[in-house]
Amino acid sequence: MRVPADFFVDRFRDIESYKKGASILEVKKFSAPPKMEDLSQLTIDKNDLADLRNCKVGDCAVKLPSSVILRVQKEINWSSADAEQQATELARTVLLQYVQRYLAGGNEQLSEYSDKKQPLRVAEQFDAILKASPYIFAYDPEFYGYLSDYPKKHLDGVEDFLYWSKEKFGLKPVISVTHVSIYRKPELSVTLIASKQIYANHYFEASLGLTAALAASKDPDPSFYLLYFNRSRSDALHGGFSGLARGQVKSWARKGALENLVNVQRSIEAQFAARPAN
Fold it and tell me: What is the domain range of residue 254?
């Protein structure tokens, strides 16, 4: 990218503008500390509302822990005229409480999905992804440890924020919550950005993205190399139709990654070119 790396990182911090695109339906950065107003734009699609209505522990089309599934059954009067509003308010409340627990307790507070007969712990999935990403440890063991032990481990030079988004992906939009950690290493002219998905209501069991902004030159022609890695686990890759699903997920993921990188390059370079003269 023909812009300074710091310019790109500053734009990434503004995640609501950075992620704008045709596939992004809704996105909002959480305040510090998070508050209910941060989720005021969140909406639940009609299909998800229908799935929630029929949701049971061990048999649910939405990824939820058993405690939330029971709340859906108990607290929402599906025969009332405002059932949709009740479900939306419960979803906002549950997500806020989840984010608050995660900020206090880290991976130990990640969900255990009970949408299928066999519960799935997100913390175990994330740990498996991290262990399958030795390049992070080899490049920076301290940052690897920070991602593994957050918030117990402190690391100078790291800034964190969380955001939620609703994005088009496959047949259903995905509502997710992501923890971003930006780690600057001035001595190496590199900035590492980890995007750790801590919740997704469809498809994803866990996901970790790593963006590296590596300076390529200095003024008067500032530029940097943008590298992006992603490891994700998807429940669409299990079962009798896993072969077909795997192909679809790969196609969606690769196409989306390519489109996003191209759009990011065009957008960031255009913003840099249009910046006010000093």
Answer: 5-273
